[in-house]
Design brief:
Strand order of the largest sheet of chain A: 8-9-7-10-13-12-11
Structural class of chain A: alpha/beta
Oligomer: homotetramer
Shape of chain A: globular
CATH architecture of the largest domain in chain A: 2-Layer Sandwich
Order of helices and strands of chain A: EHEHHEHEHHEHEHEHEHEEHEEEH
Number of strands of chain A: 13
Largest interface: A-B, 54 and 54 residues
């Protein structure tokens, strides 16, 4: 089997990472990559790491050609996929689509409108889309035609907090998440704040009053406990890749010691190929996961007090974007879930 | 007036930064710098940034010479100052001492023993030492003979959380602090974890189960509210200098809107030369404060919910160590508090 | 004496650094800062490191106000100062101007046109401008009305190579300079190549076929030897500040051993406040010079062969721009040359 | 076919990278990894990026077990392999050995002694060892029993300069190489100079008076022209991985224009799977090659003058160490040369 792949949106880091992974996957063939402003240009001139790996030129969005693919990935700014996907699915009812943007992640169209400032144009597809976090929706993903690939922060935060809520050991509110991302999360867009001269000097929070990934995270946590409520503060650190999230929840009474908490996490992910629970006392480093599709977790209960701390690290472009998209695609096509992904990271 | 300065412990980054500041202070003259293993070596061979600034050689600890100074700074690993300071104070009852280590920060000797694993050898001095956070103990510092200079994390966390506790607007427990530090906080000590090859690749938490700065922070917060309790998770990020702390507390009922919270913070520090409260919506960047003695704060109340978020940034080696020590010294000698300190930071 | 300062172009890193230095200089008062697109905005919103240091708002270019200053610094893209300066000098014949852009650095208007792609609009001023490298033109600078402040690479390269040419010990051609700069050298301009995600990952050369600083360097070297010819390759490294230049020249016959070469360099700069020649065997680190106005040099003659290697490091924004501008201003106004500059750097 | 692999020296970055590549190679099985001081410890505790990839514990050096392997890689400090390899080869005359240290790289034992300060203990094997640069010794490598894997700087410098010497278009002396490396080249050894606090702040040269990779490079260049002589200055930059080398040579008379020079390079490597010659005007970035086995080259003839500049970039741990070792192993065992290596890099 060779699966014909179309990629809409190949300018950014997510698109580039997806091309790298597609090139290394034995069952896939990249048919076309679109990029509005770069159409006609050699892909590897924009992404020199792909010289010798991808020899396509960027094309404009050609609905017919995309609809002739087996699977289309959309790695576009929000607002694009919700307009394109209905057209493609109408043109080819057998097509599978994985959207890496935010367009199909929130089930509630009015909530989407509230955070993105415009009405959702494809409420029907929104209702059908499956949230592509395999650890929680594996079966639905396998059957889905349209998968909403999770955001990077949400992947790190949900994988760390959901098992605690699931277990009923912690209070659903308030939950805290302080997360640090590398600059690639902000995209390959020329902005002063992401210049090395600016972002290279230190750490800072941003969007502390409200980040668009918050409703997505709470929606997922509320699958475990309907009243889950999270305070989420994202930060920028001087690194290209990686997310590290530090998650805090309050234990209900004295229901669980540290070992029980660790056991809960370990059991939950015992058979997951891409979640690694460290031994007690561990501290995951985002730098160890570069290029790999792993989410690495550790759990602490400091001083035996009533607060549990979960540490969660991923590569934002892999498990937080392109890698998870490929994992979803493997599930949707009945391929081995880990195919083309590997597990190790590149360090130093 | 020329104040004669002795520095015990000149090998590390804190000692070096203190030498830089002392050299720029018009009333100070550095008389001697000790360093056990480097005695006889030129100071600026170890700290090339001081070539042309400090032309001393390191000496061994000479109690007589140190006691003949007007002020002695100790920038040594814990356990050293508590043995040396009583000897120096006995030799020169007019001597003033500022200890930049952890030896005199905790009022309770048994608490000190619990965190540092050995009995405190100078309980008398421990009882007399003043905690050198000028924003909360200015008058006592001015009269003190022995000042315990605060730790770097404690400076950032206390300055951010104390006003909220003081105001009575938030619950004293649980409080959350997720703080990120540059590698200089770990000292100029050859360790694998602080190699650029390791720490340069990403972010990681460390000592999530208990960091020695926790009891120091809680001791200070309990001056505002006796039952304050903090969950504190420190992290390492790929940068040399700087601390950024993200602090969360739960509002009591609906006692204060965002503007009131901001006003509370602003009023508390309105006359402080080294605390800068940003306008509402602000996000301090640790990188903007390099070399300056400033603590920069911002406050948010995300989505109008019941959680308040304070962002706090400092240069760990200046306001978090050597700069604050100099600020304390200015107070102890009746000099203008800001002398030799400046306010601006070096960016990029 | 209080000198009234005007700054044209306050958006970039050079302008911001100049404001920091002006604020710390006891004889200067910053009267106005212009920035076309930010006019009316608070300066420290753009440069948060200046909060509490500079409390001006950006203004538009007001020729009358600028001409009423004692000194005007122009820190603008090339092509701006050559149009503005003649107007200001006509309006106020007593005004002194220091141009930090490239507009007055090349003596030859046709050479300027060749590298900058448009005719020079102020050939008269070009002829009168003094090249502001104090170590080589101190007396002329002191008498000058218009000083062309050297580029960052030229400062590092000329200070390292000129003494060797002056001594007659090396061949004037070919000379080699491989220099590495931090990203702040490219300015505070949103460009993909300077994003942390791009520049943070490694080192690369740029403009290897010809960089605009080349003619400026050769012009200066030819003051020492009329046939000097340089191969110059600039690079970008993952750091915000700093330049490190590695300079190679071929010894004429066997005219000088390593000690003689070192002595030549040391003698040349023995009385220079801002050039530091390291002992034999030294290696300057650009990171030790951050915020300081120093050029640090070291010299090697590897394996006693016929090639001499000079290593040269500066802070590109200080000795390579704003600091040198202030040094020139001190000379032009008869102030102590080092006033407001200090010597030390900030490390780590 | 499954090839049984032994690795001597698994503590460092080279050993870890080799384990990553071996784990991804379909024909290899890692039998044992030695590490004197870590024997008995889990490999992935030292190298967390290998959690889930390598599940061995470190062992002590067991000659019998090593000799029972099909191939042994030695990734040890110099002086170790030259003592061990003769023993292993005596025990198993069919064993193949690839030494990643410096022990077998110099053909001349007295030259080795001069640079490493002790007599070579295995002059016989030294004489037989093949220098493992496939682009120049492919056939000899395929037949070799003992391969000396090239150093990281030598790989980058030789691949860039050798074709020019081979072509006869440039003078063999003096040649210039200014090369910049990430900190991983200095190994996973706790040293102050490689701390992020030190190396993170800027760029500096080191060993400018003579680096041990110089004789190795000159030996290789002299295969092309017997009187080749190089000035080589290595530098450290704030990055974990990567080498960028800037190489200069003088053209003989006016023998070649830029296009001819480019064509020469391109032709030389037209069929090489791991050398990528960029189009004219290109500038390789070391950051684009992370994790890949590629050497990327570009060539310039600035201003049409008599100097040619070659830019050369590699990942120091892959093409500069472990990747090239695997490439050599593929050749020695008759496997496809690219197996288990891929070509792309990880960026950002």
């Amino acid at each position: 089997m060779t699966i014909k792949v179309g990629l809409v949106g190949g300018t950014g880091y997510t698109g580039a990472e997806l091309m790298r992974l597609v090139a290394g996957h034995p069952e896939l063939r990249l048919d076309c990559v679109t990029a509005r402003e770069l159409s006609g240009k050699v892909v590897s001139d924009t992404h020199p790491q792909l010289r010798g790996v991808v020899d396509l030129v960027f094309s404009t969005v050609d609905n017919e050609r995309l609809a002739a693919c087996d699977v289309v990935f959309t790695a576009t700014p929000h607002g694009v996929a919700m307009r394109l996907v209905p057209i493609l699915l109408a043109a080819n009812p057998a097509l599978k689509v994985i959207d890496l943007s935010a367009d199909f992640r929130l089930h509630d169209a009015s909530e989407w409108e509230r955070w993105y400032g415009e009405p959702h144009t494809a409420p029907e597809q929104l209702a059908e889309a499956v949230y592509g976090l395999p650890e929680y929706h594996r079966e639905a993903i396998a059957k889905a035609q349209l998968v909403a690939n999770p955001g990077c922060y949400p992947t790190a935060v949900i994988l760390g907090l959901a098992p605690l809520l699931e277990s009923g050991l912690v209070r659903p509110a308030p939950l805290f998440a302080s997360a640090v991302s590398g600059t690639s999360g902000a995209g390959r867009i020329p902005r002063v704040a992401q210049l090395l001269s600016e972002a290279g000097g230190g750490v800072s929070a941003y969007n502390a009053s409200g980040h668009r990934h918050l409703p997505e995270i709470e929606q997922a946590l509320r699958e475990q406990n309907a009243v889950a409520e999270l305070s989420f503060v994202p930060h920028l650190a001087p690194m290209g890749r990686g997310i590290h999230a530090t998650l805090c929840a309050q234990l209900i009474a004295d229901m669980a010691d540290e070992k029980t908490l660790h056991h809960t996490l370990q059991e939950r992910y015992a058979h997951e190929p891409f979640v690694d629970v460290m031994p007690l006392g561990g501290h995951p480093r985002s730098g160890d996961l570069r290029g790999g599709n792993l989410c690495r977790l550790a759990i602490h209960r400091p001083q035996g007090r009533g607060v549990v701390v979960v540490l969660s690290a991923i590569d934002n472009l892999v498990k937080g974007a392109a890698g998870q998209a490929l994992q979803n695609m493997n599930l949707m096509f009945g391929l081995p879930e880990s195919q083309g992904l590997g597990v190790g990271g590149l360090a130093p």
